[in-house]
Write a structure and sequence with these properties.
Helix 2 runs parallel beside helix 11, helix 6 packs parallel to helix 7 and helix 12 runs parallel beside helix 14. A hairpin with a 4-residue loop joins strand 12 and strand 13. The chain contains 14 helices and 13 strands. By secondary structure, the chain is an alpha/beta fold. Strands 2-8-7-6-5-3-4 form a 7-stranded mixed β-sheet, sandwiched between helices. Helices cover about 40% and strands about 15% of the residues. The protein binds pyridoxal-5'-phosphate. The site of pyridoxal-5'-phosphate has 13 residues, from helix 3.
């Protein structure tokens, strides 16, 4: 029994999902002729109360296309210093869109409307890059799956409206936030110009992300997706997995959150662990005591068939997902108690 806590991207399709994929009706999506893709796109747009959606091969491409839609070369976007668009997309915002990132020194991947206000550039000053976009990440990945406060997001939206800034949500794990905070998709749909959502994380699909927005934005996104080489053919097989996940894998995210909390508590109780970040969703970030080498710690767990990620400087991460059973969680807790 291998317990893979490296990421929630490691899941394999369930039998039900495979069956849905196998039975999908497909067509050539570049000719807009795949009924299953269209069904998925319409379904998620309806759930969020937004006009349209577009399927993407990855969350990175969905974010990159969103940045492209909202900016012109030379402009600037504002995001938290820990955000995925800045740290983990290969410098794509400058490569694809020619924009720079003005980083906010936030708290656990999140910031306030006030902090945003301080960063917005002065359009009258020709020395400054023009700010045109703000990106938010919910849940905040690098912070350990932290969830934003909806009230603060509303204030941020007001700033964006006053300053004429577009607002994009990197919602790779938005469904984890919705479940943890008991929020509704429409509350986000009304607030953001575009939202990207990963099907391949907690929702358990083998591949796929969606970008949601207005008809006008999604029309542009279709063109940019093609430009980036993301026009695909019989992807109804993948969209069928997405439809299945939205119908079957959303409510169960609470199990992942509970498992993360259980293991988080076991880590708290361990004498070799210095600190555990608050566990809000499916990610647990923690630090070993200074006298313990984190690589040794990772190897020790690996020898018990538990795979976790070392993030450097004593920082370690576990991610809970669909393929982690109660039995596995018990085993992890027992191993931690023995350390
Ligand atoms: C995983 C992730 C993405 C998208 O990553 P892909 O691997 O390209 O699908 C974007 N943002 C965040 C916060 C993520 O965790």
């Amino acid at each position: 029994m291998q317990i893979n806590l490296l990421s929630d991207t490691v899941t394999k399709p369930t039998e039900g999902m495979l069956k849905a994929m196998f039975n999908a009706e497909v067509g050539d999506d570049v000719f807009n002729a795949d009924p299953t893709v269209n069904h998925l796109q319409e379904k998620i747009a309806r759930l969020f109360g937004m006009e349209a959606a577009l399927f993407f091969p990855s969350g990175t491409m969905a974010n990159q296309v969103a940045v492209k839609i909202h900016t012109q070369p030379g402009e600037q976007l504002i995001c938290d210093k820990w955000s995925h668009v800045y740290n983990y997309e290969g410098g794509g915002v400058s490569f694809n869109s020619g924009v720079s990132c003005n980083l906010i020194d936030g708290e656990r991947g999140m910031f306030t409307a006030e902090q945003l206000m301080e960063k917005v550039s002065n359009r009258e000053d020709i020395h400054q890059a023009i700010t045109t976009l703000v990106t938010i990440e919910n849940t905040a990945n690098k912070a350990g799956g932290a969830c934003w406060n909806l009230k603060e997001l509303k204030k941020i939206k007001q700033v964006c409206q006053q300053q004429d800034l577009a607002l994009h949500l990197d919602g790779a794990r938005l469904y984890n936030a919705l479940i943890a905070k008991k929020e509704r998709p429409q509350q986000y749909g009304v607030m953001f110009d575009t939202i990207s959502i990963c099907l391949s994380k907690g929702l358990g699909c083998p591949v796929g992300s969606l970008l949601l927005g207005s008809n006008e934005h999604i029309k542009k996104a279709l063109r940019y997706r093609k430009t980036m080489g993301g026009g695909m053919r019989q992807i109804g097989y993948l969209a069928a997995a997405g439809i299945y996940a939205l119908d079957n894998h959303v409510d169960r995210l609470v199990d992942d959150h509970n498992n993360a909390k259980k293991v988080g508590a076991a880590l708290e109780a361990s004498s070799v662990i210095k600190k555990v970040e608050p566990v809000e969703t499916n990610i647990v970030i923690f630090y070993t005591n200074d006298d313990i080498d984190d690589t040794d710690f990772v190897n020790k767990l690996a020898s018990e068939n538990i795979l976790i990620t070392g993030m450097g400087q004593g920082k370690l991460r576990m991610v809970f997902h669909l393929d982690i059973t109660n039995e596995m969680v018990e085993h992890v807790v027992q191993v931690l108690q023995k350390l």
